[in-house]
Amino acid sequence: MADLSKAEILQWLKESEPKRLQDLYRRSDLVRKQHVGDAVHLRGLIELSSHCVRQCMYCGLRQANQSLPRYRMTLNEVEDCVRLAEKLGYGTVVMQAGEDDALTSDWIAEVVRWIKRETALAVTLSLGERREEELRLWRQAGADRYLLRFETSNPGLFRLIHPQRVPDSPDRLTLLRQLKSLGYEAGGGVMVGIPGQSYESLAEDVLMFRALDLDMIGIGPYIPHLATPLGSGALCPEIDPAEQAPNSEEVVYKMMAMTRILCPDANIPSTTALATINKTHGRKRGLSVGANVVMPNLTPVKYRSLYQIYPAKACIEESATDCSECLRGQIHSLGRFAGQGPGGRRICEDPREVVSRGHSQLVQLQTQ
Ligand code: SAM
Ligand code: SF4
User: Fold this and answer.
1) Are 122 and 342 spatial neighbours (Cβ–Cβ below 8 Å)?
2) What pLDDT, in 10s, does the model give residues 78-95?
3) Closest ligand 2 atom, CA of 129?
4) At what angle do helices 249-262 and 199-212 cross, to 10 degrees?
5) Would you say 202 and 331 are in contact if contact means Cβ atoms under 8 Å apart?
6) Which one, 9, 35, 118, 178, has least CB within 10 Å?
7) Does the global pTM surpass 0.85?
């Protein structure tokens, strides 16, 4: 397996020579091609509810943000989004929300059962830190994957920016292990450039992805939201300014590239946060440095601007059909193709994926 030591990761994080960075990106793109092929999987995102009981210091959905009108989708609206995902040829729906107790275990289980009965779609859930019995119930109902970013592997910083809801509740790293043991494909990830986050802590994040053997890994820039303590500067974690990692595009690309090298067969999205800080090229560049997944938005347009995790979020005006066409255009312009079927880490149903991986391995053998 390809390897990068912590010292090498740190060196790359601080590298500024464009030619050397091109070498890193070429290497990560080749690893992507060899291990997951040229397919880009489209996961349709349904933002179920903007209600949240948590007080994460970075997120616009935190309960204390009273300036944000809240919504919760109805069952009919969710079903319409799922039908649209099928019509647009997506292989997965991702149902995401704040930690909203009104999304009861039974309601979510019913929705998952309905999707699995009526469609061939894979179901990913991203509903925050829920109880083990709920996670088990949803898995039994047919949910395939669960996304829960651990945000930073630095325990002190995590506790500071992510107050616990219930004292002594399991942390996100523990929950990720629990999700894997329940049989989910588990997705973690981090924000890059959180105030108080050092370069060294980012290097440890990359090593943590590999140690956890994650199936999906989401990496995006931290984007300040003025209605949050971290974004307004009311909370200012102490750090030596020379050690503070920037929330720049380039550092995100470096993190994605090294993650691809160390976790070659993981599914790695080119995130909406990346598309937000570079609306023109962010998604495509993410796909060029190691990503193989995009998450087009299926949420009804009337709700999109209300799911305001951070300001100026990309793709909040476009219809689901426009999003699909735009992303497919970007994928084709890179010489890649949209994957078919669920596109899980352990299964590959699309024959073109086999061909594209096989071909790249052949090319590599010929050039050795
Ligand atoms: N409530 C669920 C949870 O916390 O896992 C899912 C929704 S939450 C909005 C999804 C992700 O948004 C978080 O894991 C976090 O990484 C990201 N996020 C929140 N605030 C952000 C910010 N200010 N900048 C960038 N990403 C942010
Ligand atoms: Fe709620 Fe998730 Fe935002 Fe935290 S990150 S406030 S849990 S929506």
Assistant:
1) yes
2) 999 999 999 999 999 999
3) 7
4) 30
5) no
6) 118
7) yes
